[in-house]
Amino acid sequence: MDFKGLLAYQKGFELAMEIFQFSKSFPKEEKYSLTDQIRRSARSVCACIGESYRKRLYPAHFISKLSDSDMENSETQVWLDFAFECEYLDKESHEKLTEKVKEVGKLLNYMILNPEKFGSKKIN
Predict the structure, then answer these.
(1) Secondary structure E strands in 1-124
(2) What is the reported pLDDT for 123?
(3) For residue 110, what are the CA distances in angstroms to 59, 97, 105, 107, 113?
(4) Using CA atoms, how far apart are residues 18 and 22, in angstroms rounded to an integer?
């Protein structure tokens, strides 16, 4: 299997693309701050998953990269909260995107706790 077949990657990619679409409507003055930050963190979730998959033969590296992905996912949540509080996202959109962030987080944590299911060995 390629990393693109991983559910965490697929859900993360879908989320990053939704955030991209929503962020197109953010104010122009946010272009180099909130818009850039939220897009980068959302995309980094997938980039780190791809990197982790290539490191799966080395359990510590695999888990470390997945941890980086989880960190980026949490950062994405922070930027979503700012976008909501700044009134760039309505409540329904914020809740929908937040649920997707949580889902990606659960998938990442499953991978971190079960590395052997992804071609790695579990670290004791």
Answers:
(1) none
(2) 64
(3) 14, 20, 9, 5, 5
(4) 6
Q: At 34, phi and psi to the nearest 5? A: -60, -45
What pLDDT was estimated at residue 55? Answer: 93
Question: What distances in angstroms separate CA 68 from CA 31, 73, 83, 94, one per listed residue?
Answer: 25, 9, 23, 23
Write down the pLDDT at residue 120.
84
Q: Which residues contact 96 (CB under 8 A, 6 or more apart)?
A: none
Predicted local distance difference test score (pLDDT) of residue 124: 62
pLDDT averaged over 10-residue windows placed end to end, the chain, 124 residues: 94 98 96 96 98 94 97 98 97 98 98 92 65
Structural domains in the chain plus CATH codes: 3-115 (1.20.1440.60)
For 3, the token pair is 């990393």
Scan for tokens 């760039």, then name that residue: 88
Place of tokens 């790695």: 120
CA 123 to chain centre: 23
